[in-house]
Fold each of these.
Amino acid sequence: MMWMQRFFLLASTILAVASAQAQNYPAHPVKIVVPFAAGGPADNYARFLAQRLQEMLGQPFVIDNKPGAGSVIGTDIAAKAPADGYTLLLMSNTHTVNETLMANKPFVLTRDFTGVAPINYSDLVLVAHPSVKASTVRELIAQARANPGKINYASSGPGTPYHMAGELFKSMADVYLVHIPYRGSSGARTDVIGGQVDLMFDAVTTMAEVVKTGKVKALATTGLQRSAVLPDVPTVHESGVPNYEATIWLGLLAPKSTPKPVIDKLNEAVSKIASQPEVRQQWAQQGATPLVMTPAQFDQYIQDDIAKWAKVIQAAHIKAE
């Protein structure tokens, strides 16, 4: 029986230490690795969240942009960080796509990370430079079929929501568009606005204001219902590609084995921020909807999204470029 007493004593000690860590957390600045370029939706919401976490928890939350390789570079850095709660990862559904799209990554999402909290989701909008003749999805489909390979679209890199939205559209609309991958969404957006690239699926939260200036024209949004931010723009679903849907969602991860009390404290803080009426209102005006889940629910959400995109990738024979 002595070994059982020692076991329970050890377990009690570990729990006590973890509880103390959570009570004192954070004791110094926390780094949030953003594996995407500055200026895009992921970076913008990471900075928004970091400022409010700092106000709530009393320590700086510092953004560290590490873009490249379709989010793999920054994600690998976060995966190798100490599991102490002082390095977090800003993820998007790029990560759940990459679990199938990129077989040789140096990490496995569900093996090397644990869910902290989701943040929000938003629709995308398919935009075209004004020089593109098509002004509707049906016109685009007709032109693409008549001129295969002559129309291109930009994305923020392989596996990103912008890329997958384009590949899903190609598959469901039975057209061929040339994919032009960029290192981040800002460069892709700039070149569509400048006319160097024809099209882009971009986050409504970022592109809506550009649409309103007339620098690009909106052909469709990607939710099953019209966007409240661009209510006059039809959905792809109602424009000739039934059941088409693509969104971008964001969340926070931590390296696996980060103490549960720390995870719970961060989840509580993020959930409080996302539930604040002024935050919900501000995000709604941008076209984003808050997501609130427990860590366990978020882990399941991630697993379900991996399975969802695996089916799409395999059925459409999508390859990393």
Amino acid sequence: MGVVRVMNADGVSRHPSAARLEDELRWVQNKLFDVGSLLATAPGQTFTNMPQVAARDVTRLEKLIDHCQKDLTPLKEFILPGGGKVSGFLHQARTVCRRAERLCVALSKTEPVDPAIITFINRLSDALFVLARWVSKTQGEPEFLWERDVPKKAK
């Protein structure tokens, strides 16, 4: 998230979408710190001002997804990660987020993990994908579609 924010900082003065992205990514980065704190806390242990990940956080991600998708055309092919720097790093963040989701699910099989955390991480990876597409669209970056390798017919 930090790398995406650094890359996005150059566009904040040129694109209103970059300013919106900065606000959202700052919030996400703080929520991920909360997630890390909660996962690092021993099961059953609590402390004063303990952070939370709640349904409202998932709802915020879903509203962000809905907002961004209004500007996007529906996909007919897979997207190849890349395009511009910001969208490329958002795609990379999405893959890291998916890995974190798998690790949280695995952890939940050995100790209690708040289901809200797993839901949040799942929706975050979806949001990062949509944000990557939205950045490409709103900041004029290219978006590369997967091209099927169609075998040539014999003559």
Amino acid sequence: MPAKIRLQRHGKKSYPFYHIVIADGRAPRNGKFIEKIGTYNPNTNPATIDLNFDQALTWLKNGAQPTDTCRAILSYKGVMYKKHLLGGLAKGALTEDQVNEKFAKWLQEKDSKINNKATKLSEEKKSLEQKRFEAEKAVKEAKAAAVVAKNTPVVEETPVEEAAAEEVVEAPVAEVAAEAPVAEAPVAEAPAAEEAPAAAEEAAPVADEAPAAPAEEVAPAAEEAKAEGEAPAAE
């Protein structure tokens, strides 16, 4: 049975720590192993992996079969990709310089991704700590304000302060009273205008009371004057 690349559990309860070992496939998980080629700590973010790259690559080339977790670890560290490039070199599809160039480029991109992730996690951690600090500061300030309010004695208002408050309240009322006659002035003038027709009406009956000359008295006077004028003509 071929050798296997697998994890051997160590560490405390709820805090596992693993060794990456080469062991016989028939051996129990924590039994004897052939060789230890690295460690794996999943409790950090990103996970901490310490791996003997050359030994892992040699065991892969010799036919060792990694478990699923160990395959992911070897792929993360570039061992699986290096084996793939060496396979192309053995077939003549790639030269040694091309293999080294491609692998160096892959390592550079991988390191950049890891560094970006670590930087992002660090910034998020700092931001979270800042928010917690501000929240704690707000709680402390609220408690301090409550203590000050509780210990501050209640001060009663003096008569002087009450009189000043009454003056402030009554001042707008006095202003409104002063402005009221100005607003009512046009209304007061209206009755005077209405009294003029009444006076005219009172004067009208006086003119009506003067007796007009009767029409019958005017007519005889005219006839007498006419008769007197005509009398000499007859003579």
